[in-house]
Amino acid sequence: MSLEKLFNPRGIAIAGASGDPTRPGGQTVRALNQYGYQGGIYPINPRYSELAGHKCYPSISAIDGACDLVVIALPAAQTPALLRECGAKGIGFAVILGGGFRETGEEGARIEAEMLAAAKESKVRVIGPNCLGLVNVHAHVFAAFGSIARDPAHTPGGVSAVIQSGGFGNGLVLQCSLAGVGFRYIVASGNESDITAPELMSAFVDDPHTKVILAYLEGVTDGRGLMEIGRRALAARKPILILKAGNTEQGKRAAASHTANLTGQYDIYRAAFRQCGIIEVTDIHEAADFALALLAGRLPKGRNVALMGGSGGSAAVFGDAADAVGLTLPPLTAATTALLEKSLPTMGSLKNPIDYTAGYPRPETADSFLRAYSAVLADPGIDQLTFMFASAGRAQLQLAGDLLEQAMPKFNKPVLAFSAMTAEIAPEGFAKLREIGVPVLPSPARVARAMAMLADYAEALARIPKPGTDAPAPAIVLPALPAGAATLDEHASKAVLAAAGVPVTRDVLLPPGRETVDDTMKFPLAVKIVSRDIAHRSDIGGVRLNVANAQELKEAVAGVTANARRAAPAAQLAGVLVSEMVAGGVETIVGVVNDAGFGPVVAFGIGGVMAEAIRDMSYRVAPFGPDDARAMIDEIRLRALLDGGRGRPACDIDALAGILVRVSELAWQMRERLAEMDINPLIVGPQGAVAADALVVLR
Amino acid sequence: MSLEKLFNPRGIAIAGASGDPTRPGGQTVRALNQYGYQGGIYPINPRYSELAGHKCYPSISAIDGACDLVVIALPAAQTPALLRECGAKGIGFAVILGGGFRETGEEGARIEAEMLAAAKESKVRVIGPNCLGLVNVHAHVFAAFGSIARDPAHTPGGVSAVIQSGGFGNGLVLQCSLAGVGFRYIVASGNESDITAPELMSAFVDDPHTKVILAYLEGVTDGRGLMEIGRRALAARKPILILKAGNTEQGKRAAASHTANLTGQYDIYRAAFRQCGIIEVTDIHEAADFALALLAGRLPKGRNVALMGGSGGSAAVFGDAADAVGLTLPPLTAATTALLEKSLPTMGSLKNPIDYTAGYPRPETADSFLRAYSAVLADPGIDQLTFMFASAGRAQLQLAGDLLEQAMPKFNKPVLAFSAMTAEIAPEGFAKLREIGVPVLPSPARVARAMAMLADYAEALARIPKPGTDAPAPAIVLPALPAGAATLDEHASKAVLAAAGVPVTRDVLLPPGRETVDDTMKFPLAVKIVSRDIAHRSDIGGVRLNVANAQELKEAVAGVTANARRAAPAAQLAGVLVSEMVAGGVETIVGVVNDAGFGPVVAFGIGGVMAEAIRDMSYRVAPFGPDDARAMIDEIRLRALLDGGRGRPACDIDALAGILVRVSELAWQMRERLAEMDINPLIVGPQGAVAADALVVLR
């Protein structure tokens, strides 16, 4: 449903309005008055007939004008009745500022449930409770109290924000504003009883005037819903920036004391963000930098950048940062270099990075510089351009702004700049650069990260499946599964994988008493005891590897059976599993967890204690296609081990990626039944890969 | 020698003075006039008798007042003669602004050498050439041009800075100034022909009014000299902050175009910084944050922090950042908790992090808050305190400042704060917090990193050796070494290590023809061909491992000899090395490189392709003691592999650390002869560690 009237109400009632500006209801009225809201303002308080210059009403029902939104600044227990009044009056939206709900314990949770039932029954959609409320900066709507309703007022602009913490989130918004980012809607979503952060983000995607979406999140209950909105936003070319907190033990503990939104592992959130093109920001200033870069509205075609400047040190710092974020400073074409030789002083460096030396840009050299700027922007190998103004003064900034205004329109390439100056020190230059869409950031490294983010975002856009290419995978015909929770043994687990097209090692389950296999099984063989009652079979001598011939096989079957009987006399033995062994290859691990918020998630990593010691796993939410599979392979730090070298052949990455895709499809199809799945090891050879052991746990 | 008169000259001559403020010489005169330098100003220019209100002199020799410093704004070729004039006149210091020296090529390098010879001969010390010059902010000395001599003027304060790039470095200084950091001396050191960045830092250590030293470095030629200054600064409790650039391929390439200072690997710089207590900063805003935190002057006793605030989101963000930098938010004592229960509203959380809810701090609750602040500061388990003001407004900041002013003096603990406000928005609160030494930073994560830096610095101070405990290691009695460059074979290399007290596997070199060993050698044995002409002996079948008995030994000796003869018929065979093998343990690698700037540097890592794939090595400049050895062991990402688990015993870390120390002492003693050294593997077992193979390369 549309939230349009929530953001642009014809009138606003304030239940619990007060003339005391220290009280929440008083702050809302003050803000609406002070910042010039043009709709109807209806204070509700039976004790007054007039309040802060407005007629004051004894009840919601007494309101005599158009009203779409009520701000509730009343004790929690009074909210259910008030929402029913709103429903009766046809007011479709409420912002509940006060606390006293589920964040306070059992009794609060009961009141919150009652409030939510009243809201649903009365068809009133609710923001909050326990929140600072919402602001429409353009229309001066302040259904809010606290810092969000106070000076300094936000600058109007194209960013809409949802914040799962009023104090921090508004600090984020404020710091972005100070950096020059303009805002449209700002919503502190509080307990999210009814309207959640993802629903608000979805509304921002649909709002034609929102260009960029910013969110401070501690968690969402519907991870897949968030991804769906991410994909919709990507298709609409509206970047979503998320600052995610509560990602570590201490962060989670701190967040737990004030939020109920905490779900899921950080690794999974990060994977989900990448899959749907959501851009993660890691600190407040990065949010501001990225918002400025995105609001400028230009995207690069690739990861090649050119640098111009008069400060060699800035170029060195930028070069280091570019290395870290995967940007390249490539050589320029011969044509560009020839043009630069004609236009710039030769005492600097005319190779990329281009150092024109600090003192050279002056009004009398403007024509030369204009030619140089245009030449670099025109270079077909350059996707973005950055200027290192460093501590260059007012005049240079203004001159560069004027020249770029002429040079840029022909080339739709992003241009970003580093200046240690501020808009206060060099107002004309900063104003001009802002006007023409050149973000000016206060360090070369921050410029590099913003440019890399633009490249990442352009790559995410390029990954959007073309219509018709994202047909759902054909259904997998699974073997019969036991009803209810169950742990499948290796043989049965491998049968499930095989049904999905994942190659598995050939095996045969020898019932108790049998100790030979037929001729088609190829030595060497692995021999493992099979029992649901024995968890760590290698610890009790229940596994023998590299069994070379029939005689050894006999001994091995007898040996693992005897060991199991001795170690676990009460265990029921299903038999002995005999599998062909795979020679060579790299042992990898493919796992699936079924996350409460995101559903099935596939994990990938290298096998062994070293990889485990550095927790080197990558994740993707299932199902996914070959692009994501390849990206998750490339993400692990031990990636180089799959490339072979030192006499080892390179691994078959195509086969591995294909298996990851099939596992993701299998996990998605089995999502109602699957608790977890483990392929350990998946042995990846030079041609193909095969699951040598597997475990499927049903729920 | 003292640089006192360089920074505080009685008079300044400007050679190449000009009335044109676009020319360097003109800018210096303008800055000296404009910012109120009180000493003598002596423009030198034979064409004028008066310039910008000052008597103008035809030559240096004509100066008729006290003069300690000349600023040279003349073509490079004129500088040698001018320096001789200065020497004759008794002027001890020169700042050479202009370029045209070795940064321009061969002819420039010749002029620079001539200039330097003239300076030495005339006993004139030189800053530059090719630099923006120096500033003494307190005394308004501007021996400078360009951005460093221009508005906005710097605030006076306790930070002295040396910058190896004028444009970027001055931007660094400017951004720090805008964040509230005051400066004393600022020197752009240019080509560093004579006075280098380390010499300037050394002078700052000796300057009683410099409290913190800031440097932008691209490299130093004397790495050990830098470390010595770092140690001296640490002993004087003057923190050194370094922003190091040119650390990656692209960063190096960019820096190479404008500097001659680039030496050494980034890994080695970072190790050296840690060893001598230098604090690395990774971006401009971090330099500002860290400088503010250090200028406040308090250091923590440990890594435990308490958080108070009204913004749960800020606490979550802080918690995540604290996790990443190794800060702990521990539980408070029962006594503290009891005091908080009496003082703060119970609707928030009274556990650390302490959430007093956003609206509660008001003048009428001031007494309660004062008690709460004092209780937390008094908690013996808390080393630092942070306030998350987030978007709290003017009144709360001012109130907190007033209360902290009363609470803090009793407890010498650092207090830092996050506020999204600025000094412009909340001037009174910011001024009060600054006055009492509470740095206010614009994000919770940045506060966490600054607090972690304080803890790191306090730990570096605690590591300073007590007098008498850092006696030099006794000299190692080495076996006879060949003269000149030579690669020692495994047997000889292990003898060198053994001389230094590093346990090595027992071995015997069998000359050609012999194929038995005496009874004292314990099987299993490793058998390796020994020849200076064969580099990769395992590739040609020159190595046999796990030789179990005398018969196998015979075959192995014959086998590796035959393989070597077949693969390298021309190679001269020294014989066959037979070594005892070590069972179990973790294979590690210990290496030594002899760096041009830092001398011998020891490297440590885990053996094998995985560790190599993630380049998991740590470094320390030799020699070093057990603390550094343990730190370098703890630094590697695969550290957990040394802890055992899964049936493997824990490694003997004491023995490993001891070996690293002995290798470092050996490398230091052999520094004139050593090219490189490799112990691969050093097998670390549950009791002791032993070098199973070694290579020493002499130069």
Apparent shape of chain A: flat
Task: Indicate the structural class of chain A.
Answer: alpha/beta
CATH fold group of the largest domain in chain A? Rossmann fold
How large is the count of helical segments of chain A?
21
Number of strands of chain A: 30
Largest sheet of chain A: 7 strands, mixed
> Could you say how many structural domains of chain A there are in total?
5
Percent range of helical residues of chain A: 25-40%
> Mean pLDDT score of chain A, rounded?
93
Biggest sheet, spatial arrangement of strands of chain A: 9-8-11-10-12-13-14
Quickly give the CATH architecture of the largest domain in chain A.
3-Layer(aba) Sandwich
What oligomeric state do the depicted chains represent? homodimer
Provide the CATH superfamily of the largest domain in chain A. Succinyl-CoA synthetase domains
Could you list the spans of chain A in which at least 5 consecutive residues all have pLDDT below 50? Answer: none
Distance N to C terminus of chain A: 35 Å
Of all chain pairs, the largest interface belongs to: A-B, 100 and 100 residues
Strand content of chain A: 15-25%
Q: Which radius of gyration of chain A do the C-alpha atoms yield?
A: 31 Å
